[in-house]
Each structure stands twice: as C-alpha cells, then as structure tokens.
Design goal:
By secondary structure, the protein is an alpha+beta fold. It is built from 3 helices and 5 strands; from the N terminus they run ααβββββα. The chain folds into 2 domains: 62 residues, no CATH class; 46 residues, SH3 type barrels, CATH 2.30.30. A hairpin with a 4-residue loop joins strand 1 and strand 2.
Length: 139
C-alpha cells in the first residue's frame, strides 16, 4: 500500500464515521433542548457539588489547620519538616525557623515547610521536695 491509498482509506473511514454519528448528535441536542435548560445542567451542578464536598472543602480545612499550627509554633517545640527532618525549634524570626537537629547542629527552614508538631514543651514547674516525708518513709 502506498501513502495515497492509505490516506484515501482513512478519509473514507472518517467520513463514514462522522456520517453515522452526526445524526445521533443532532437528535441528542434536540432532545436536550426539549427538556429545558436546567435539566441539562443538573448533572454538571451535581458533579460540582460532589467535588466541593469531597475534595475542595476538606483541603481548605487542612490548609486552615496547617496555617494555625504554623502560627502557634513556639521556641522549644519539637517539629517535623516537609523533608522529614526532626528537630527542636530554637528561634523563629521573619518566617524562618532555626531548628536544632542534633546537639550543636542547627538548620534554617521556612516556617511554612514545617508539617507536623511532635510535642509541645511543658512549662517548667518548680518541683516541691518533700524532704520530711522522704525521711519518715526511709525510717
């Protein structure tokens, strides 16, 4: 088969296919216009609502919770960065957090790349020593 024969066969096939499908498309369009404009938009509206409920709304909630977590990070928090690095926040300034990942090893990361808060530092409370009670129980 040469190139012109192949081209002619393809064009005949496309013409036959379009002739077969074209009347069906016109019939569908006529039926849709008889049903009214709202009924033809109903499936599209339903799909949009489903996408909003299943995808967009939960993503917005996650973004809001992440932004709140980022704003509440304080010095001493143990955090996980987007790259999976674990460390303790030693300083936060102008959206940059300094994280100590090992003793004497600190890195600077953008504050919004912190993905998780491992634990919050507990305020140091003065421990009361009950020396008298310990002495009595030892006797």
């Amino acid at each position: 088969m040469n190139n012109s024969t192949l081209t002619s066969m393809i064009s005949k096939a496309v013409a036959a296919l379009s002739a077969a499908l074209l009347p069906a498309n016109f019939a569908f369009a006529a039926a849709a216009s008889d049903g009214g404009g709202i009924m033809s938009l109903l499936p599209l509206i339903l799909i949009m609502v489903i996408f909003w409920v299943l995808l967009i709304r939960p993503q917005q909630k996650r973004m809001k919770a992440h932004a709140e977590m980022i704003q509440n990070i304080k010095k001493g928090n143990k955090v996980v960065t987007g790259g999976g690095i674990l460390g303790r926040v030693t300083n936060i300034k102008d959206g940059i957090a300094t994280i100590e990942i090992a003793e004497g090893v600190s890195i600077k990361v953008k504050q919004d790349t912190i993905t998780d808060l491992q634990e919050t530092p507990e305020p140091k409370a003065k421990k009361e020593r009950n020396v008298g009670k310990a002495d009595k129980s030892a006797k």
